[in-house]
Amino acid sequence: MNLISRGLLALASLLLIGVFFVPLWKITLTAPQYPEGLGMLIWVNDITGEKPHDLYNINLLNHYIGMKYIEPEKIPELKVMPIIFGFMVILGLIGAVTGKRKILKVWVLLFVVFGVLGIIDFYRWEYDYGHNLDPNAPLKIPGLAYQPPLIGCKTLLNMQACSWPDTGAYIAVVSLVLGVLALVVSRLGERTTSYEAVQT
Q1: What DSSP designation does 50 have?
Q2: Spatial separation of the C-alpha atoms in residues 115 and 139, rounded to whole Å
Q3: Hey, where are the domains in the chain?
Q4: Which residue of 13, 24, 77, 199 sits 20 to 30 Å from the alpha carbon of 46, by its own alpha carbon?
Q5: How many CB atoms lie within 10 A of CB 2?
Q6: SS3 113
């Protein structure tokens, strides 16, 4: 890798540290009984309410319609994601220091794979919470599921559920773009060097 590629990879890797300090995703619920809305923030290692009692109130609603309680300490992904992001930071920095393009290629490939698997797993998690309902719930409507949207908004009974990426997800996207750019610059640099060698 040339110096520019190594700098881009280092920047991409260091930028990923930011996901540990901001939410990755946000789900909001609005309804007549909650006009100010309820917000749930998904972090790399935790799930919290946007406001102090939001997660508690969301769990109350979940219980009423038969959905499982959202208990962050019981969600294995919240233990795995910090390891994955930490690994990507370290691997990227190793690639930037050593200048090995193979490490850059692996970094970009793993980033894409982890991203796709993460989205699939998030959808599966939402599906399970929205479809695997308690048959003894106070409110039962045959055939109705309460799965929130993966992205966008959806009406569930008298509630509007919206799911959107938050700051951490945008940081991850920018990091990936920088990594891909580093790969492109590295490839162009290699072609230029090869061309100059042929000319001489």
Answers
A1: S
A2: 36
A3: 3-199
A4: 13
A5: 17
A6: helix
